[in-house]
Structures are given as C-alpha cells and as structure tokens.
Amino acid sequence: MAGSTVAAHSRLNGSLKPGADLAPSLVAQDAEPAVLGALIVDGELMGVVDKIIVGADFHEQHYASLYDALRYLYERGEPIDKVSVAQELRRRNVLDEVGGLDLLTQLLGAVPTTASVEYYARIVRTASDRRKLLSWLRSIALRVTAGDELDPIVAEIGALPIEIASAHTSPAHAAELRCIAPRDVLIRRPKWLMLGRIPLGEFQTLDGEGGIGKTTAVLDVIAAATAGLALPDGSALDKPLIAIVLAEEDSLSMLKARLIVAGADLDRVRFVDDVQYRDGRPNTPFSLPANAPQLERLIRETGADIVYIDSLFSHFDVALDSHRSQDARAVCRPLADIAHTTGAAILATRHWAKTAGPAASRGLGSADIRNVARSVISFGKHPMRFDDEGIYVAAVSKSNCGPRVDALLYRIEPTPFKYDNGEAFEGGIGRIVWLGTDSTTADEIAGPLETSEERSDRSEAREMIVDLLSSGAKTAADIEERRLRTGIAKRTLERARRDLRGEGVIDRHGGGVAGSVYWSLAARDAQQNANDSTERHRPRGGERGEECPIVAPSGSQGIAAALAFDPRGDSSMTARTSRTQSYLGRAQASDTTKTSVFYQNEPSDDEAIES
Prior knowledge:
Layout: H1 2-15, H2 31-41, H3 46-49, H4 61-75, H5 82-91, H6 95-98, H7 100-108, H8 117-145, H9 150-157, H10 162-168, H11 171-174, E1 192-194, E2 198-199, E3 203-208, H12 214-227, E4 243-247, H13 252-262, E5 269-272, H14 292-302, E6 306-310, H15 325-342, E7 345-351, H16 359-362, H17 367-372, E8 375-381, E9 392-399, E10 407-415, E11 429-438, H18 442-446, H19 452-469, E12 474-475, H20 476-486, H21 490-502, E13 506-510, E14 517-521, H22 523-528, E15 576-577, E16 587-588
Parallel strand pairs: 3-7, 3-8, 4-5, 4-6, 6-7
Antiparallel strand pairs: 1-2, 8-9, 9-10, 10-11, 12-14, 13-14, 15-16
C-alpha cells in the first residue's frame, strides 16, 4: 500500500507543476506578471507585497526565481530597476532561464497601474492557496483510497494547513505569531525631509495652541519642498517633492493663498476634497480610519512625499472618541503603516489643552496619539520674549529616530494679497519668516510664559554670575554660595547659567568622575570685562557656527537680556525673508544690519550647579 501511496503522490504533484493544464482559478495568469512588473517600476512596493506572498506562491518557476531576486535587492537596500535586476539574475546564473532581458521588458509593459499591486498580490496568494488546498485534499483522498489508517487521516483533516487557515478563516481561528530571525532584519538609515525634525516614512504630529502659525509653518515647508527651495533649516532637496493636503473644505481657499504667498509650486500639490464612490452613492467627507486605504492609493498614484492632515481630530470618524486609547490607535496606527509602506511623511496638527504643563501631556486626545507618532514638534510662543514681539518656537518634543536638534524660531509677517477678482485681501496673508534657532525646549514653551517678574529675576541672576566671574574662575560651590546670599531661586540661576553658556559668555570646565566643576568668563568676555556697556555674544545665523557681533544695551535689561538687538540699539526685528538667499532657510537681515535676528544656544546640559 505504501508503494501505491507514493505513486499516487507522484501523480498528484506532477499534475500541479508549472505547465500542467490547470483550471483558471488555480493560476493567476495575469496577476503574477503584473506584481513583478510593478515591483520593477517601484521597488518600495516590496514592503507591501512581501507581507502577502512569497516566491513559492508563483505558479511559474521563472517568476518565482525573479521574485526572490527582487526581494534580495530590496532587503539589501539596493535600487530595483531593469538593470539592477538583470545584474542580480546574471549573478545567480538564471537570467537566461527566466527569459532574459526580453522578459523584464515584457513585465514592465504588463503593469496597468502600480497602485493596484496589493490587489494583484492577493490574487496570486489566493491561487497559490487553492493549489495547496487542492493538493492537500487529493493527498487525503489518495490515503483513504490506499487503505491507510483512518485515525491519523481524520486528525489531519481537523488540522487545515496553517498558511491557508491564516488567510482564509475568521480572525479568531487565523491568528498565529509571525517570527523573523534577527539576521533577516535590516537596520536602515532613516530618510529625512528635515534632519532631526521631519522624518520621511513616519507619522508625526504637530502640537500647539491655536493662532500661532502651525498650519502656516507647515505650508511654508511644503512650499519650499514643492518648489525646490531651501528648507527652514537651510538644507536643500535633490528634487522638488509632491504634497497632499487634507483640510476642511471651507479652508481650501485660504490654504491655497498661503501656499501662493510662500512660493509653492501648486502643480505639485493636491487638495483632498471629499470621497466619491463609483456606485453612485453621494460623496462623503474624508474620514479615518475608513478612508485610510483610499489615502494610501492616492499617495501611490501621485507619488506624494508629504501628506498634511489639518487637523487630525477633524478627520476622526464621528463615532470615535479621540480620548479613548483604542479609538486613537484605530486612526493613528493605519497612518503610521501607510507612512512606512509608502515612504511619505504624514504630518497631522493637534491642538493643546488650555492648561499649561509638560509638552508630552498637553496634546488633546489620548496619549496613544503621541505614542504611535515617531516624531512630535511642539509650537508655541517663545518663553523668554515679550508677548507683543510675536516670536514663536517650533521645538522637537519627541524623536525616536533622529539626532537632537535645536528649536526653530519664526514670526509671521502679513503679506499683500489679492482675491481672484482683484480686490485686496484686508490685512494681507500671513507668511513665515524663519529667524534661526536656539535651545528653547518643548517643555519651556508648553509651560506658562515667563512673567515680567521672572524676567527681572533672570536678568539679576545673569548679572550676578557675570559679576562674580569677572574677578576670575569660580567653582560651582562659589556660585551656589553667592546664590544663597542674594536669594536667587536655584531654577532661575540654572536657566541664567544655561543662557549665558549658550551665548558664549561663560564656559564650563572640569567635571567627570573625579574632577570639580568650575566656571569662567569666555576668553573674549574676560578681556573686555563684563561690566562694559556692550558685549560680544555668539549667535548663529547664516553659516552654522559663524560668529556675529551683536550690540546689546546693559542696565535694566541685563546682560543681553536674552534679546537680539540690532546695532542701532533698538529691539525691532528687521529681518525679511528671501527665497533666493538662504539664511538658515530663507531669513536674511535687511538694510545695513548683518546679524542674527536671534541667537542659538548650544545644546544645554540640564545638570544643576552643584554645591
């Protein structure tokens, strides 16, 4: 009987081999070449396809060999195109076997649209599962016919092959743990739109109070990216990008106006209006998570690199509660997955709660929104500037994949604008002027703004430190003793010390395992004496690290008073933006002023001045 069973298995396997006359439902004749062609056109689609099929799912062996080669190139992070694929097949000595360059050319012509690659892959998977199931059922029938013991056969019937069950049974019966060997996991270098601030291929939230220019700032970034201009951090892109913007319908005209003022290439921007249906149903507003698949399809069809959702909560399904963890994850998790598989940066704005507190806890909605996001930027008023100066901060509050960077500073300038009918827009359209960077943190802008009394206390602490160090270097204990005698709060002293160090007025020495910490005036300040009416600070503008002289009055406003003044002695901000000359991303000084509009502190160390 054993011999008859083996023979029967041989006949079974032979009947399902490539080239056998199989029913159409068992062979994905058109879908197999469509999947391979789509992967050659856009190799990043492998991230989607690889979750659905493996090489063995292809009925044609030469297609299976080609898929394995494509997957190998993808996992190594190498480009996928006709030339690289041919080289890999040649390296494997199977180029002629799979059909040579002619096959690759034919496959490129077999792709109706790369946007449907997931659909094609599922057709391939279904046909493969049908063949596996048929083979399994025939094996059972042959064993029964051959007279094998029934008990093991019955037990096997109750155990449907796992790979088929997981794809075609209800979720309760289809669950299994998918394991990946560490050696098969690639450590990929993150891709950035702006290093340390906006990662590509990730979901990110932009948090802050209303009316501080979050949307205007994001649109300015989109404008620069689509027009190939310098970004706010001064970096440049290899090529212009494509952006998708989702917003409330009644705000689209204002968004267009802001993009025009910012210099965007409107041909590279797409507004999502609503969701339309092919079956004649009325159009509906875009809603998450229901329309996440349509968003992914649009990203692939347009080749978008940036997706901006303004705002996140306005696109929640009406039945969901943004404060519930499971509802928040139901919306944000698909966005994160779409970002990963498409490589696009998905940005969504979120308002802060009214009460002050740490940046991590101020965002409205569930904390899981922040947990899902790989990066968070907080927007707010500068905590050390007078309210009426309109200086705002964009500080990275969370970054799981990049280096620490300083906060970007900006203000909003009204720009003359006309409606389509030629009438002037009263008050103009707001345009972002980037003012450089400093070390302000997200928690500082999320907390309450500094009061005039606190500003005075900090000014007093700054003067105390400079006065003490003007006679020579002092230990941390010396500074702590003077603090106690003057009654200055420890936190105030620490912030003043950080400001002075960031401006290059004082230096920190020593420390480590056995060394003592002591402080001194920076060399140039020690030479000219800190009691002079003017001081030389070290702001950063223009080229990173360039030293610019800034003249600041002394007296009631303190040493520099954490403000950047122009040489004429007033505190007016005179910078204007130029799209052709980059000053940390398009900010340059006007008139005869050749100086930073604001200073940038060095990354601060948060240690206290220890006694």
